[in-house]
Design a protein that fits this description.
The structure holds 3 protein chains of 3 kinds. By secondary structure, chain A is mostly helical. Chain A has helices at about 1-15, 30-35, 40-60, 70-95, 95-100, 115-125, 130-160, 180-215, and strands at about 160, 165. Chain C has helices at about 25-65, 160-165, 205-225; strands at about 75-80, 85, 95-100, 110-120, 125-130, 135-145, 170, 185, 195-200. The chains are: A mainly alpha, B mainly alpha, C alpha+beta. Chain C: This is Electron transport complex protein RnfG. Chain C: One of its GO terms (molecular function) is electron transfer activity.
């Protein structure tokens, strides 16, 4: 049982850390950069994508024995497009302001490589439960990635976080952050940070391993 | 207000460049921009598919609007784009095997290119007529090709220079894209 | 769900690249998937329809009330070449959609209509208010724009610029077929006439887009609405 739980946890964490769609795989870049001008937009986009991801992976996994492999891609795209249409109407019903802010990028979730990639590489081979857990992890990882961009861009570009002013009236916003170049720079900055951190960890790990070995011998 | 076809073409090519200002088609932009000799054919193939998709979407939208079936728009667009890509692939294979070999590996990728679906969705949202849609898809495709070629040229030069280890790969490409995007912001205001 | 298994799962010696699924099975599966997806889409559309319509109505009312502050309710109309008719469904070709704002007593407080012109980055869409009594434009709101934040969006907050819309003159000419004076955006500090708009220095192109949007829409709409004002004077 413990082993099963550990595997479930691992299945979920895969998308958040080891295969994070934004920072590690660099997938689904279009919505990542386009809608992350504010934290709330980023969060909404992340939740919408997660919803489509979970529903599509569930249906693909349920139908995995029925779908012939010759027409699988077409089938997956139709399934994904269905849930995107559902999300589209759901967001319109919840808030038109949000719908206008996200614009065509809600419908462009269809061509987000993360979803088709998960359906093809994972959900079509495993049981519905595993597929849903993995999809939820991927969705959470994607949302975290979007939020990382959205918060930075909103804080610097607008002086606010989730609409709450942080620095008072005297703050001169860095307008570039909410313009298209800012999106590229902030994501580039995050990737640089992760690369620097990974390198430092590797360097730190090497002497530590040697020390541990030496200790054992002694 | 009526935008002329020329205005739409210039706007989609420069000021509202699909890749650098609208963030459409970033996956191939980051993935296929390492070398100039693959970037250009990719751009041309995408432009062609965008043109076909735009024309199909225009006809399809007329049909769906007349039947009041607007809620089927997205699903029919994506199906028609996937079919168009298949069709282009088959026609090319039969008519021009040389071109097919040059573009072959890129064609299936184009189905999941946001720029292609983006053209169809934006032209519908903005209620472009036939000529405007044509200009929009050609301008968008040319803009995509331009961004791809510029990026590939920069990255080819970059291979000869000394880049710090942690900046190699996607991070460097993104920062470069940001600088290109800054440059393209200078085109804003053209034609107004 | 119990579609027969494709034969490839039972017969081993088939080469993996050959198409092994019978056409009928493929079509059956695609039909099944299409049916499921169709049901989901139609369900979502029907389920969200009333909420979406309600949201759109509220958003429209809010936008109109913002430009016509004394309005308490609105009526939607089409202006065609022959006159004014209450709006229903999609805008027919050649007609212009506009909104009449009614005050608390149900009397016409003003007319709101959309205008659009190319701005700095992309098309700037605005909603402006026309007051029949003074034959002037008294305010505008932004519907959508991609103008540079901090520069182009000054049009909504710059006090000198907003002062242009206290009473922007859009009187019709004697023949009632066009504006007597074209609405025009002029360089900052050179406004001399009540039909001119004093541009924001540093955001001239966006200011000009507002002026052009109002001018174009007013030239087309007002000659059609002004002669038929009586038919929309009171709330239907």
């Amino acid at each position: 049982m413990n082993l099963g739980q550990a595997k479930t946890f691992d299945e979920f964490m895969e998308g958040i850390w080891r295969q994070n769609p934004v920072f590690v795989m660099a997938l689904g870049m279009c919505p990542t950069l386009a809608v992350t001008v504010s934290a709330i937009n980023a969060l909404s986009m992340g939740v919408a994508t997660t919803f489509v991801l979970i529903c599509s992976c569930l249906l693909v996994s349920l139908l995995r024995r029925v779908i012939p492999k010759e027409v699988r891609i077409a089938t997956y795209i139709v399934i994904i497009a269905t849930f995107v249409t559902v999300t589209d109407y759901a967001i319109q019903a919840i808030s038109l302001t949000l719908y206008d802010a996200l614009g065509a990028f809600i419908q462009l979730i269809v061509v987000n490589c993360v979803i088709l990639g998960r359906a093809e590489a994972h959900a079509s081979k495993v049981s519905p439960l595993t597929a849903v857990i993995n999809a939820a992890g991927m969705g959470a990882g994607f949302t975290i990635g979007l939020l990382a961009l959205g918060t930075v861009r909103e804080i610097f570009g607008n002086g606010t976080l989730f609409g709450i002013s942080l620095f008072g009236a005297n703050f001169q916003p860095w307008v570039i952050m909410v313009l298209p170049p800012g999106g590229f720079f902030v994501l580039g900055g995050w990737l640089l940070l992760f690369a620097w951190w990974a390198k430092r960890r590797d360097k730190a790990a090497l002497p530590a391993d040697k020390a541990a070995e030496g200790h054992q011998h002694a | 207000m009526h935008e002329s076809a020329a205005q739409i073409f210039i706007s989609a090519l420069l000021a509202n460049n699909f890749v650098l200002a609208m963030f459409l088609g970033l996956c191939p932009f980051l993935g296929v921009s390492a070398r100039l000799d693959t970037a250009f054919p990719m751009g041309v193939a995408t432009t062609f598919v965008m043109l076909v998709a735009s024309l199909c979407a225009f006809g399809l939208n007329l049909l769906l609007s007349s039947l009041h079936l607007e809620f089927l728009r997205l699903i029919s667009y994506i199906v028609i784009i996937a079919s168009a890509v298949q069709l282009v692939e088959m026609v090319l294979k039969k008519r021009s095997p040389t071109l097919f070999r040059a573009l072959g590996i890129f064609l299936p990728l184009i189905t999941t290119n946001c720029a292609v679906l983006g053209v169809a969705l934006f032209q519908t949202a903005r209620e472009y007529d036939f000529l405007q849609s044509l200009a929009f898809s050609l301008g968008g495709g040319a803009g995509f090709t331009l961004a791809l070629v510029l990026m590939a040229s920069v990255r080819e030069r970059l291979q000869l220079s000394d880049v710090p280890g942690i900046a190699q790969g996607t991070a460097m490409t993104l920062v470069l894209a940001g600088i290109l995007s800054l440059g393209f912001m200078g085109f804003a205001g053209i034609g107004s | 769900m119990n579609a027969p298994q494709p034969p490839e799962s039972s017969s081993a010696p088939v080469p993996p690249s050959a198409p092994t699924t019978p056409t009928a099975a493929m079509i059956r599966t695609l039909g099944l998937v299409a049916t499921i997806c169709g049901l989901i889409i139609v369900g979502a559309y029907q389920g969200s329809f009333s909420a979406v319509q309600e949201n759109k109505r509220i958003a429209l009312e809010r936008a109109v009330f913002k430009v016509i502050p004394s309005a308490r309710s609105i009526g939607e109309y089409f202006a065609t070449a022959n006159g004014v008719t209450p709006a229903s469904g999609d805008t027919p070709p050649g007609a212009i959609r506009f909104y009449a704002g009614y005050d608390a007593d149900g009397k016409l407080a003003g007319v709101a209509a959309e205008g659009a012109a190319k701005g700095y980055a992309d098309v700037v869409r605005i909603l402006f208010a026309w007051i029949p009594e003074c034959q002037c434009v008294t305010g505008f709101g932004l519907v959508s724009s991609r103008e540079t934040p901090g520069i182009g969006d000054k049009i909504l907050v710059d006090r000198d610029f907003l002062a242009n819309f206290k009473e922007l003159d859009v009187r019709l000419n004697a023949d009632m077929n066009a504006l007597a004076n074209e609405v025009k955006t002029v360089k900052h500090g050179t406004k001399t006439q009540p039909w001119q708009i004093d541009a924001i220095s540093g955001a001239t192109i966006t200011s000009r887009a507002v002026g052009r949007g109002i001018n174009e829409a007013a030239q087309a709409l007002l000659p059609r609405v002004a002669p038929h004002l009586d038919s929309i004077r009171t709330k239907p």
